[in-house]
Amino acid sequence: MTTSTEALVPRLREICGAGNVITDPLELRTYECDGLTSHRSVPALAVLPGAAAEVASVVAACAAAGVPFVARGSGTGLSGGALPREDGVLIVMSRMRSVIEIDPVSRRAVVEPGVTNLSVSKAAAPFGLFYAPDPSSQVVCSVGGNVAENSGGAHCLKHGFTVHHVTGLQIVTPAGELTWLGDGTGVSSGYDLVGAFTGSEGTLGIVTKIVVKLMPLPEVVHTLLAAYATTAEGGRAVSDIIAAGIVPAAIEMMDALSIEAAEAAVHCNYPAGAGAVLIVELDGPASEVEAELSVVRAICEAAGATEIRAADDPAQRAVIWAGRKSAFAAVGRISPSFIVQDGVVPRTSLGAVLGRIASLSSEAGIRVANVFHAGDGNLHPLVLYDDSVPGQEAAAEEVSGRILDACLEAGGSITGEHGVGVDKSRYMPKMFTSADLDTMQLVRCAFDPANLCNPGKIFPTPRLCGEVPGRRRAPHPAVAAGQAEIF
Ligand SMILES: Cc1cc2nc3c(=O)[nH]c(=O)nc-3n(C[C@H](O)[C@H](O)[C@H](O)COP(=O)(O)OP(=O)(O)OC[C@H]3O[C@@H](n4cnc5c(N)ncnc54)[C@H](O)[C@@H]3O)c2cc1C
Questions:
Q1: How sure is the predictor about 328, in pLDDT bands with cuts at 50, 70 and 90?
Q2: Which of 65, 114, 148, 371 has the least CB density, counted as fewest CB within 10 Å?
Q3: Ligand 1 centroid vs 54 CA: distance in angstroms?
Q4: CA distance 232 to 236
Q5: What global pTM score does this model have?
Q6: Within the chain, what is the greatest distance between any pair of CA atoms?
Q7: 135 in contact with ligand 1, CB cutoff 6 A
Q8: Angle at which helices 3-16 and 52-65 pack, to 10 degrees?
């Protein structure tokens, strides 16, 4: 513990209660990483506030002492976003986990940030409503973490990402003030600060309450599994479904290696010998779904499906989904270690980029399993390696990075939903110009001029706010164009 963090302990105990301030080095190791275990760092201390006012007081104490702080939800993030600072305070939101209010008339819920994603839908179900964003980690991950990462999920193709479902945020600013962004209606005028905050990866403040939209539970849900010899054939079915004007709730694809892993883990009994399986889910009014189902089935057949299974009751649908939902963890059955990559490509480039991934894999002798949100081009290549074999981890890292290059070359992105965090900050200059990055820094500086709120994440080069304009040899392009001034 540093002198500054040690000096904070009495004040933090006063705010949160002694039992909610963790200083024991062994206990603190619980928080040394998130779901990305290749980055580890033990926080100087951790606090578990129980209310928004406590979060505000904790942040104000950190700000006054000049101590950096990092928010943590459930720690399932896959980009090291919640990686603690050794010289800082980790603010763990897991005690703040209630669904405060469900309003079935305005179809809104107000929740605390530590509540798990699935709990919101469970609380809304008696009113015939659900919370649409559904990361595969939804049993565990927190809505606060979802807001910070702008999380997606299998059903975001039709229903949208977290940002499309958040209408108001109570936040603690990095100076320790409690305030609201958005009025909860989702139609407020002025700058869209809720939009700016959503996806900011814990760098603009800490969320303490969230107003989310709830949607009516669909009248019917039909799930269809189509098996193909190759991912290219499955990819053709995806393009043809969208081209037919149908937007399914979900279109997911798994390749042969990820099917093998899922089979080993959950015995999902997907069609034997399939080179790829496509899962298409349709939801909505019965008449609409029935009509779309026959079109989707015909498209899947025309693209070369070797077998098609359909399910419309929850138990049968769960059987189809079991393999897909287990896919990340299942890969542990066929490889001692693996990297979960997250990149995006235009849907039309899916086939070409999957081909490029196959070449990278065979050139490096590193296996890559592909499981992905095919409908929105969000790839999750799982790069497999054995860390007991010298050089394999580095080779896997190399393949993983070159997959992102392939996504960028295809006009895509270095992340679809897992965020930049600490892991991908080095790739940001490949996607953005330095002027782009400076402009993003100006937004961060507007919220956090002292750079204490989750510092060292997203941006490749640590900067103090004053340095953005001050140390440039040439003026910032916006200043040169007379569109901005330095303040
Ligand atoms: C098996 C598995 C499957 C996954 N599937 C998906 C998927 O389908 N889609 C998807 O998008 N992601 C997925 N993820 C990634 C992860 O679950 C999401 O990023 C999730 O939103 C993280 O939530 P969390 O509560 O665990 O946040 P954490 O990991 O604790 O934190 C994530 C980020 O949020 C910040 N943060 C947390 N709470 C707050 C707060 N209250 N205020 C401000 N900032 C905060 C942290 O500082 C950090 O930057 C998956 C992860 C795993 C392990």
A1: confident
A2: 65
A3: 22
A4: 6
A5: 0.93
A6: 69
A7: yes
A8: 160
